[in-house]
Amino acid sequence: MIPKLHYISQGNSPKDHLENIQKACTSGAELVQLRLKISSEKKLLKFATEAREITAHFQTRLIINDHYKIAKAIKADGVHLGQTDASPAVARKYLYDWQIIGGTANTLQECELLLDHQVNYISLGPFRNTNTKENTPPVLGINGYTAITDILKTGTPLIGVGGITTNDVVDILKTGISGIAVSEAITRDFNNIKTFNQLLNASSTAEQRYTFE
Questions:
Q1: pLDDT band, residue 130 (cuts 50/70/90)
Q2: Cis amide linkage into residue 126, ω under 30° from 0
């Protein structure tokens, strides 16, 4: 089962990322993604281990961005793979059976490819321009989401991402997107987690069950 709200970690330093993950857990986040861009795998393993300790304390699920081998090493709940990362098929062979894999998509064709690889959720975006990533693909917005969900019939959760605020949630859900991943709006005010959860009706009984097509 995939929670409807994902917090993507943000910060100016690894310490900031860990502090923000703890704040997110304290504020009721059910799933956080450690998105820490550092070149040293040894350092990343250290910080990922600390993130695992924090999330385990709060019984919050932890997803590691990009690094599926680190996700397995620390027994994170899964990995999120961007389009320039390893193939989900490669990661699946390496990971534990219970670990989930998410993938990033911007087009219908990319969604279909990820479904062929049996990912557990698809992160679809960007919804709008965002400062957290450089060289982002075309913005989708409500119309882009609708164009994809009208054709893509799947039980695999589609998670909207990219500059999403609390004001966007109701309209996004109307398109058939089942959840959202948020970085900036939550980092700016962790009380927004409660608001997002209310808008998503993201209780444990309302989680999206993923299915393999």
A1: confident
A2: yes
